[in-house]
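I had to read the description of the data format several times before I understood it. Each protein is reduced to its one-letter sequence and a matching series of backbone shape codes. The format is easy to grasp once an entry is in front of the reader. For illustration, here is how one protein appears when written out as sequence plus structure tokens:
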Amino acid sequence: MITARAAATFEPVGRSVATARGFVRDTLQGWGLDDLIDDAVVLTSELVTNAVIHAGTSAEVHCLRDAKGVRVEVADRHPERGLPVAEALRGYVDAESEGGRGLMLCAALSTRWGVEYTAVDKRVWFRLDEPELLVGTRSAGPVLPVEKLPTAETPPRVAVVQVDAAHTITAWNDDARRLFGHPAEQVTGKPLPDLAAWPLSPGTGTGIAEALSLSRWEGSYGVRAADGRIVPVYASHLRIRDTHGEPSTVCLLVPEHERAILQGGGRRPGHGGGPRDPMQRGAAPDTLEDLIGTPVPDDLDGLLQRTVERARDMLDGDAAFLLLATDDETELEVRASTGLPSTRQRFARVPVETGSGRYGSARMPAVHEDLAAAPGAVPLLSGTGMHAVVTVPLKVEGRLTGSLGVASESPGRYTNEEALRLQFAADRVALAVESARLTELERLRRGSLSFLVEASELLAGTLDPRQTLALMAQMSVPTLAAWCAVYTITEPGTEPVLSYVLHEDEDRIDGIRHLLERVPPPDPDAGLGVRTWHEPAEAARRKIPLRSSLRSLTLGDLNGVGGGNTPIGQATAAAVGGETVILPLLARNRVIGLLVLGKPADEHFRQETLELAEDLSRRAALALDNARLYSERTAISQSLQRSLLPPGLPAIEGVNVEVEVIYQPAGEGNEVGGDFYDVFPIREGVYGLAIGDVCGTGPPAAAVTGLARHALRLLGREGLGGPAVLERLNAAILDEGARSRFLTLLYGELAARPGGGAELKMVCAGHPLPLRLRPDGTVEPATDPQPLLGVMEDLELHEQTVTLDPGDVLLCVTDGVTERREGTRMLGDDGLAEILKTCTGLNAGAVAAKIKRAVERFASAPLSDDMAILTLRVPE
């Protein structure tokens, strides 16, 4: 039955994927399903990407909560697009296929999944069930048939409650009466669950009735006493057959603080008649619970910490430590300690092989009577004051999984007898530790997958190198490290340049930047791989003086120069005092930078974090290189575009006319447009005007644009008329062969007209016709159309003379204006003429600005083509 619902709709845009992930994450957190979040987020990301990117429709995400888990449904509006379900079920998708990998993730991570089609949508769903946990259960046996249950001849002699198959109390002894205050006649015949205070946790359905149905059960709960108090008890339930052969359950109950009575399980010879203390000196633990106590911690860190504390107490040690092997078993990583500076040692790694300065007792038990006689035998204990130490391996199926050690400040404390006892304890705990480690590793890997999915999307969402650097740092801090720095290499063989610094505490960023600026940058050799970098920590300890002038020093720098130990100096030293690692940023077989990650004082990186950092560095390096290439290409294109346009409008002398030009390229600036304009002097009192559009974009169009603009200037100044200029330009374009492009061009020569006004001799070769606006609001084409250039060899062009009287406006545009579209509507020549009619009385600049605004407002979409507007007006 559905107990909770949540739904949201996301538009078919790229950013919706991240928004959908956040919606699912927030929903599951609100429902208390933290164990399912990582898998749900990864699968939602894949399915929403399929809907909004590949299917191209909006996506509806539904989260349905029930008693066992959650069902997430992602629907799109493209049911015609089928999914490779059969391939995903086989675990194989064709490498050439663009889809299907998300379904393979569904098959791998979810409890169940499926695809449903309707006439209007397609719905992909997956289900994730919560892990089944018996709350409060220490150990449990399976449900057995009645004939398999053991027979009890007499009632137990400890505080006993006996219930029948319906959980009704049938026996209640004197010890139970004394403990809870209920006489037997008051409770006999009543259900035991009415008296039990069961410690249920949210989201679970296990109760005392389920515990009573098991063949055996042990754990803690409460019983309501006659005075209303809840008496905490430790109980052991055993299901048996009574003297009549009917199933019943015997419940042995003791006060919680006396739980050892039921847990000990026998007496040891030579240690008295009472229950033994599993940590008593001279005793070896029989079970995992004997070593670490109950309840057994669910999390790995809690289990490891409890283990070292109990191991220390078992051997009366002053300190204890536990190391876990890395995946390749070549190093041991410190995961828990007591009696040692654990903050300094946590996640520190030491090699397994024997030798000077190495951890030589990993694979076999070892006893050192006095470390002073064998310095470096256990590097973890160097400088701690410990002398005697015993270490034993943790092994699972013969494979080294870790090492457990106990140390004492007194030499000679331990012998082979203590080593055997500690080894016996380690053998009992090794399997539980390995199981918890694998569970943690799986959780970390799933979290890493979710992290990398989000990181890849963020990095792919920008082509700005500075923003890519910032994203790289922000994803590293604080998820992977306390601080980070990014060095970039602009050219092969040059020295890395510090480009970005980030710390989880913003007040420390400047201090770390100043420190890194005065130490040599790391070696960019890719062959060195991921490595430790000691220079920042050593520089912080030495307090190297700055190379800059005293005037530029900050307060934090002055602390370092003077060698004093002020709070600011201490803060910077502490920030970089831990382990620092360098990860090369490799893209296309070359190093383009370095990612430096650091921990605060005396902290180390864990192996899984470094592996995740390597994955991130590879993605970040490629994103940074793509952003750099895009930026360089944009800069080249913009520079080339500027070279194809005149540097500015010349001062028009001798002709009483206003001239204004507006040029607006389309796109993101990485493509060179084909539109151009020019106004240039031909001879005294005569000026050339040109506005044109080359077919296409990019370098081929730019080549023709450059040829046309410069040829017009040269030919016009040679004294040739308009038709002759364009005929020679047409021949030059055709001479380009396969590189030639069609060209529409409006060319004219402007001169003063005797008696006032201006005169234009114009040729309109395939270009949108210029429009003349008279003071009375009349708009008419100023020329006739003629053939465009770059198509035919023999052109017959003729020149037309246009006179501009005082108050007349001449408007020349490229097709980016007239072909502006909104759906099926197009502005066109008629629409432009209607806009121009409203411009009477405006000067040339105002006319151009009004045309530009009208064109932009005609459609909601950004410009898809370059736009050039040239206006001339004769003042009244």
User: Anything to note?
Assistant: The chain has a mean pLDDT of 80. The chain has five domains: 2-80+97-129, 156-261, 290-441, 462-541+570-635, 645-874. Residues 416-460 form the longest helix (45 residues).
